[in-house]
Amino acid sequence: MGMNRGAKPGGGKGTRLLTIVGPTAVGKTEVSVEVARRVGGEIVSADSMQVYCGMDIGTAKPTSPERRGVPHHLIDLFAPDHPFSVAEFQSLARRAIEDIAGRGRLPMLVGGTGLYVQAVTEDFHFSPLEGDADLRRKLAALAEVEGPDALHSRLRKADPAAAERIHAHDRRRVVRALEVCLLTGHPVALERGSAGAYDLLPVGLEIERPALYRRIDARVEAMIDAGWLREVRELLEAGYGPELYAMQALGYRELISHLRGEVALGEAVALIQRNTRRYAKRQLTWFRRDSRIRWIPAGEDRDIKDVVADIVRLVEGKWGRV
Asked: What pLDDT is stored for residue 13 in this prediction?
C-alpha cells in the first residue's frame, strides 16, 4: 500500500516528521539526502549557524551538488549580524514542516543542534519578555572584563539547566539567560508544553568514538584547504565583527584569533579540532538522553547505502511503503 507522503495520519497524531540527528561529522548530510531521494522528502536544517549567508565552509553547509536536487530549508536566510534565536527557528521550522507536508512530501528535520530539534519536536514555549537593553549592555561589558567562563559560572548558579545547554562562549545566549533570571527572579522561561505535535520518527546516526574523532580532524583540515580562513577574513572585511553571535561559531573564533596574530594557524587548527571533538561529545550526551531515538550504525565498516536502507526500512515500517 502506498504512502501519502507527509500527510497527516489518522487519529489526530499530527504531521509526519522524520528527524535525523547525531554528532558533527557523522555523515548526516550525505545520508539524509539519499534518504530524502528514496522517500520523497525535503530537508529542514536544524543547524544554528547554517541560517547565515556567507558562512558556508565553516558551517559545513551542503553545496548545491551535495544536495542532489533535494530541497533544503532554513539555509542562507540571514546576514551574520542577524540575532537569530531558537524561538525564531522554532517558528520558521514548523512553518516549513507544514508547507512540505501540505505538498504531500515527507518533512525531514536534520541536524546536530539538539536544542533546536527539541524546540520543534517537544513543543517548547518561549518567554515573550522584552528585556532590558541597559542590563544587557552591562552584562556584555562584564563578559569583556571577566571573560566568558566567569559569566557562564554566574549563569550556572542562577540557572543550571540553561548553563548546561548553552556553551560558555555563546556570549549572546549566556547574557540573555542571565538577563531573564535577573529581571524575573526565575530561570529562563523555556517551558515544555504538550508533546505529540508530530507523528515523529526520530533516528540517530552513531559511530565509534575514535572513528568519529578521526573524521572530525580530517574534516577540519579539509575545510581549511577549501578556503575557510579566506571566508573568515572576508566576513571581517565586510564589517561582521567578532562580537556577533554568528562569529562566535565553532572554528570562526579560533581563526579570528589567528588573523589577529594571537595564535599560529597550526595552533588554531588544532584548537578547532579539539573543540569540535568536545562539541561532538556534548551532542552525543544530549541526544542519548532521548530514549525514543532509533540509533543506526554509521561506522567505517558500513556502506552509506546500508545506512540509508536501514532508515528507509524504519520509515516504511512506520508509515507504509514509499
From this structure: 58
